[in-house]
Design goal:
The protein is an all-alpha fold. It is built from 18 helices and no strands. It is globular and about 80 Å long. The N terminus is likely disordered.
């Protein structure tokens, strides 16, 4: 079952074509995953849905993607990688087209689930295909190009969605993916090589169902926990219990079964285990700021949607700069040093974000996003290369699926925890600031306080209350950035445990 390996492609032209095609295919589902963030208000009004109801559009995508990614390895071994990729692309394209013509909330959620299930498998299948098509000495270069699609998709999704919604409506933000999906399908059909199939391979139904239930339950718990006050809600307790039990059953069964759905012994490879841990942290560092920064600008600076969406573009520019700089760094640094440098640059970016105040404008956000993007561009390719450096070629299908799963599942955790921390921090700081409001406080005596904030008048108290709320929310955002800074620094010691790799150049 672990002998699935296609022959390394000898022709440089053929390899380049495969790389381009698989990079295009990988871009589509990653754009789809975040494009809904920019058009959610339009969807809510058009579908006459409440905020909680329309939020299931985001939850459904995260849950179904988290399920679709790890299942891709079994399907690629059972039916062949190219065939599995073609099915995933065709189903994802059809779901995108149907999503754009959906008229009810139920239809929207159904097609969103289909997008996640089939779209989630595409990046993992493409990554495994690139690792097989290129010799090991060229993995760094190939992954650097391919990662552009995977990393730029979440960054370009919201601006693209905002633009499409501005010129037509929210449906166009999803329908426009369909023609590119058709193009990617035919390009994969022509260019991508097939892998060895194992038609007698049986599906480990117990492991499969346990993994699906566990991942779905935990993702829903994290997504809805903050709205329902976490374990004060019976629904959250139920999701947590079912998710924990299912994941326990999955791990025990996988370690004791002769033919598990996912062979967890892959984590005995130290480089791979540490690489997946770093990838999980990277997922949090990528997706959490993509949610926090636009909300900060919209909530506290009252900037229009189109301006807020454009503020995510610097992440893409920074990533391009980091990836281009990588070509020079590989000549003087080994992969571990470059990986540490990438995380260090991101740490400096979060430190800079933590210095923001209520006067923050697009220029500061542009610079902060640029720094984070450069860090991502520097660290992603050495991370992917080192992770698969010592892994047996026959395990790449498993490895690529779990590697991508770590990123997507951790990103959902990061977003949920960031929202929870923002909410709690805002409440705590607002209460602390309220304690200082009194007509007898020295700082609130004329002429120190403007007449508009006079606490002896009703209008003054209302304005003071609004300003305290804004200050408390700003402190909450800064607390989130500080936690991300600590998380970035905490992963650095793990890099010391990696095996020394050869030069990536």
């Amino acid at each position: 079952m672990t002998d699935q390996l296609s022959e390394t492609v000898d022709s440089r032209t053929r390899r380049s074509l495969i790389l381009f095609v698989l990079a295009l295919a990988s871009t589509l589902p990653t754009i789809n995953l975040t494009v809904a963030n920019a058009v959610l208000p339009q969807m809510q009004g058009d579908l006459s849905a409440s905020l909680e109801e329309v939020s299931w559009v985001l939850t459904a995508a995260l849950v179904s993607t988290a399920i679709g990614v790890p299942t891709s390895s079994w399907f690629s071994m059972r039916f062949g990688r190219r065939r599995s990729l073609l099915v995933a692309l065709s189903a994802f394209t059809f779901a995108s087209a149907m999503f754009g013509v959906a008229t009810t909330l139920e239809e929207v959620i159904l097609w969103r689930v289909c997008q996640g299930l089939f779209g989630g498998a595409i990046p993992a299948l493409c990554m495994a295909g690139i690792l097989d098509a290129y010799p090991k000495r060229s993995h760094a270069m190939a992954l650097a190009f391919w990662s552009g699609g995977v990393m730029l998709g979440p960054i370009m999704g919201p601006p693209l969605g905002g633009f499409m919604a501005e010129i037509h409506d929210w449906r166009l933000a999803f329908v426009f993916l369909a023609p590119f999906g058709v193009l990617a399908y035919f390009l994969v059909l022509v260019a991508a090589p097939e892998t060895k199939r194992f038609p007698d391979l049986r599906l480990d139904w117990l492991g499969f169902v346990a993994l699906c239930v566990g991942v779905a339950s935990l993702q829903v718990m994290l997504d809805r926990g903050n709205r329902l006050d976490w374990f004060e809600s019976a629904e959250i307790v139920l999701w947590a219990a079912s998710g924990g039990l299912a994941m326990y059953l999955f791990v025990v069964h996988s370690l004791t079964s002769r033919s598990p759905f996912i062979d967890l012994r892959i984590f005995l490879d130290r480089n791979y285990a540490i690489g997946c841990a770093c990838m999980a942290v990277s997922g949090m560092l990528t997706f959490a700021p993509l949610m926090l920064l636009p909300n900060l600008l919209a909530q506290l600076r009252d900037l229009p949607v189109e301006v807020v969406s454009l503020m995510l573009v610097p992440r893409g520019l920074g990533y391009a700069i980091g990836a281009l700089g990588l070509a020079r760094l590989v000549r003087i640094m080994d992969g571990r040093a470059m990986l540490a440098l990438g995380f260090a640059i991101q740490a400096s970016g979060f430190w800079y974000l933590a210095t923001f105040d209520l006067a923050v404008g697009p220029t500061q956000v542009f610079l902060g996003g640029m720094i984070l993007g450069i860090g991502e561009g520097v660290m992603w390719t050495p991370l992917a290369t080192i992770t698969f450096l010592t892994l047996a070629p026959g395990l790449r299908g498993y490895g690529a699926a779990i590697f991508q799963f770590a990123r997507f599942f951790a990103s959902g955790i990061g977003i949920s925890l960031a929202i929870a921390l923002l909410t709690r921090s805002t409440q705590i700081n607002r209460a602390a600031l309220n304690e200082r409001i009194s007509p007898f406080h020295e700082a609130l005596q004329p002429p120190a306080v403007p007449p508009a904030w006079d606490p002896t008048t009703l209008q003054g108290l209302a304005r003071l209350e609004n300003e305290m709320f804004r200050q408390a929310v700003m402190i909450g955002y800064l607390d989130d950035f500080r936690v991300l800074l600590v998380l970035t620094l905490a992963v650095l010691p793990l890099i010391l445990l990696l095996d020394r790799p050869p030069r990536l150049g």
